[in-house]
Design goal:
Strand content: 5-15%
Strand order of the largest sheet: 4-3-2-1-5-6-7
CATH superfamily of the largest domain: NAD(P)-binding Rossmann-like Domain
Bound molecules: nicotinamide-adenine-dinucleotide, magnesium ion
Shape: globular
CATH topology of the largest domain: Rossmann fold
Helix content: 40-55%
CATH architecture of the largest domain: 3-Layer(aba) Sandwich
Distance between the termini: 63 Å
Order of helices and strands: EHEHEHEHEHEHEHEHHHEEEHHHHHH
Length: about 400
Amino acid sequence: MVQSALRRLTVLGATGSIGQSTLDVVARHPDRFEIFALSAQRQDDKLLAQCLQFLPRYAVMGDPAAASRLESALRAAGSRTEVLCGEHALEQVSAAGEVDMVMAAIVGAAGLRPTLAAARAGKKVLLANKEALVLSGALFMEAVARNGATLLPIDSEHNAIFQALPADYTRRPSDAGVRRVLLTASGGPFRVAPLDSLAAVTPEQACAHPNWVMGRKISVDSATMMNKGLEVIEAHWLFGAPAQMIEVVVHPQSVIHSMVEYADGSVIAQLGNPDMRTPIAHAMAWPERIEAGVKPLDLFAIARLEFERPDLERFPCLRLAFEALQAGGAAPAVLNAANEEAVAAFLARRIGFLDIPAVIGETLERSGALAVDSVEAVFAADAAAREWARDQIRLRQAT
Ligand code: NAD
Ligand code: MG
């Protein structure tokens, strides 16, 4: 294999679950990757340790107090890393001329602007922040195309689909003979829990995913299956597949990460252990392959793979996401904003687990048909939806 030149990488959300797995892969290949910038919202201790290990040119913190603590600690350690603060700095380190690749691993709508900045600067964008595509799929894909950016999905399902599609795929399923995209889902921790036990579920139970270790927000999304709903919307934009071409398949073992079905009846699947370092390493080295520290798949130990239809009564969030995709316009952005607010309120023990879909459903009903033709309009819809969702959360807290 031909050894490529050293690639400079900005990691947005470096202290999170995806950020840390990314740095684990980087550390395995110091001859291939060099860190240009790292970012985190509040965890200055973690970011400090990462800066001392990876020696980035810049460290960006969201929280000003955390930024000044990081600044003092770096100076005391004799580091030359420069500390920046705020959203504009995130856009700067994503679009900087020296950067080859940006790992977009901030959680939630907060990741949209810096990820979009990387796309507009024509970078290789490694997209974990699915919320960016859910909020502004059309605008985002247009920015990628217009500026010659390379978009590589990190979400394990989308990375699997990307691997199962032809190399020259151009977002037109019928041109490539694609009949269906089969998006696998583990079903989360409550796949078989008694329905009447769900009202009393705690944040700890919701975050205890059977197969994946992830951040708290996406863990709750997996428990409600909103994560799969967001991924259906993500798949729609990434692969140009209409909603009716995307089928969700519950597969509790999480070994098949997704599949593509072709017109001739072939179904191509990507398999592997549930470890995000596989899609991360795949996207970072693409089109080459590199070692990722992931254990080889032991098919004999797994022995059997199971498949089920998703239960939309148990998982109303999945139905709401399909409805939002069909409705189009600002509906997916409203869905996402209401979900972020509801999940935060659930994690803060202000509302119950079953209030999450209820808050999102009410918010979607109130939003009507907002249009989104600019990033400003996306954020206006996002802000309005958050207000409506907070009203719903207050109402539910009071009862
Ligand atoms: P996480 O909560 O572990 O980490 C989030 C990161 O974003 C942290 O570094 C945090 O400091 C930063 N951050 C949080 N709020 C911010 C804000 N307002 N502004 C700037 N930075 C902020 O989350 P995660 O599990 O690593 O997920 C990151 C993204 O990747 C999410 O969009 C998630 O849906 C997606 N994703 C994660 C996984 C996984 O296995 N964890 C799998 C697929 C997709
Ligand atoms: Mg996923």
